[in-house]
Amino acid sequence: MAKSGNVSEGTSMSVLSGFVPTKTAAKILNVHPETLRDWSRRGLYNLPAPIRMGSRLLWDVAELYAWIESRKRQPVGS
After folding, report:
1. Residues 65, 24 contacting (CB under 8 angstroms)
2. Taking every annotated instance into account, which residue ranges of this chain make up the domain Helix-turn-helix (predicted)?
3. Model confidence over 53-69: pLDDT tens digits?
4. How many domains does the chain have?
5. Nearest residue to 57 (alpha-carbon basis) of 1, 2, 7, 18
6. Does the residue 10 lie in any domain?
7. What is the CATH number of the domain that holds 46?
8. What are the pLDDT digits (tens) for 4-27?
9. What is the pTM of this model?
């Protein structure tokens, strides 16, 4: 399930375990952080939606790995 929206600045980091900043998410996907931001902003590749915490985007690690697995099952050219 994709998550989106804002998270208040006072939210406990323990609630956010399993989430990583854009730089780390980009490393998981083997792309540049700006590429990941661009893909997300443009709605490309059916990426999982990040959540916003202040000015930062946070990505659900489990959703990123599920997205990678779903891409493995798609025919070339999709």
Report:
1. no
2. 23-71
3. 999 999 999 999 999 99
4. 1
5. 7
6. no
7. 1.10.10.10
8. 455 444 444 545 799 999 999 999
9. 0.73
